[in-house]
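[Meeting: bench + compute handoff]

Bench side (C.D.) handed over the final construct sequence. Compute side (W.E.) agreed to return the predicted structure before the next meeting so the bench team could plan truncations. Sequence as handed over:
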Amino acid sequence: MQSDQLNYIPILMQFILAVGFVVGTIVVSGKLGPKRRSEVKGKNFECGIESVGNARIPFSVKYFLVAILFVLFDVEVIFLYPWAINFKELGMEGMVKMVIFMLLLLVGFFYIIKKKALEWE
């Protein structure tokens, strides 16, 4: 193997360990978990209060839209960290690419403001 390929062995080992842990946990919990079922045990219960009504109440689409937009912009901000760390090494080319990235981010932000996606009714 070449030395470049050997650098990926720790990543492969971590991936195998993570998948093995998840599969192992699922298998062990299925074998060792409690098997007794009863009407009281299967009943919905939250905070000591008996459930009243239907649990299938529809949520506003605005709730999910705000959650998705939060995750989207949060993930985009994560890309700023590696850029800030490598700012000097990237030079002017990195600066231009980040300005383009930030402009696209701002265009998206102004678009959701124009569409009033963040306004509650």
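W.E. noted at the follow-up: The chain has a mean pLDDT of 84. C.D. will use this when planning the next construct.
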